[in-house]
Amino acid sequence: MLLMLTIAVRKGWFQVRKKAVIAVLWGVPSAISVIAVLAGYFGGLIFGYQLDRIRAFLGQESEYIYQINILRAAASGQFYNGNKIVLEKMDGWNSDYILAYLSASYGKLIGVILCCVSVILVILVFGIVFRQKNQLGQMIGCGCGILFAVSTLLNILINFGMFPTSMTFLPFFSAGGSCVVLSYALMGIVLSIYRYKSIYPAYTSLPSVKVDVQL
Q: Residue 170 and residue 34: Cα distance in Å, rounded?
């Protein structure tokens, strides 16, 4: 929502001081988020399994440390045959960790290609969105593009062991009914926006024409 509002402000849809408003939009929520995370971590306000995942990511002793180690080893292409067997025993090997599984099964190059394809897809979606003339179409398309981008980025970071493990999916590649339906529904909206990309952004007034009528 912050990204979408920032885009609207940058495009001049609101008569405000752009830099000041954007600074407040991002500064205040960021500060609150950091304080909330620190308070939850040190104050024991978050769930135990979430704390264990954070500890595992930081390299501390945790029951999730093996997941991080396996994902990092699979992403780097180290002893991938063994990782493939271990990954198959992990919940979500064909959804949350599909990128790590393919890297462990077929080599690091396949994982890199899959990442590139996913990033190119996100770029193409935003390319369609920003060529849209209609404001509503741009905002709806931006929402779809941001969902694709966030899901792709989180999945890549988690599968490379660069972010604490969590439920995520790689659009169009991860298994699971809800993941597949959501991916195709979002892409259907984006293609619909592309189809009507030439719609005017607002009502336009027709030029006045003088007509001299003689009876």
A: 27
Q: How far apart are CA 179 and CA 185, in angstroms?
A: 10
- Residue 179: phi and psi, rounded to 5, are -65, -45
Is the pLDDT score of 54 beyond 60? Answer: yes
Residue 200 to residue 203: CA distance in whole angstroms: 7
Q: Are 72 and 99 in contact (CB under 8 A)?
A: no
Contacts of 79 (CB under 8 A, 6+ apart): 73
- Cβ–Cβ under 8 Å, residues 152 and 119: yes
Could you read off the pLDDT of 116-138 as tens digits, one per residue? 999 999 999 998 888 887 888 88
| Cβ atoms within 10 Å of 46's Cβ, excluding its own | 15
CA 113, CA 170: separation in Å to the nearest integer?
13
By the 8 A CB rule, do 25 and 5 touch? yes
Classify burial at 74, counting beta carbons within 10 Å of its beta carbon; exposed 0-12, middle 13-18, buried 19 or more.
buried
Terminal C-alpha separation, the chain: 61
Q: Name the least confident of 58-72, 153-167, 194-208.
A: 194-208
pTM comes to: 0.75
pLDDT value at position 185? 94
- The answer to whether 170 touches 155, Cβ cutoff 8 Å, is yes
d(CA 180, CA 171): 7
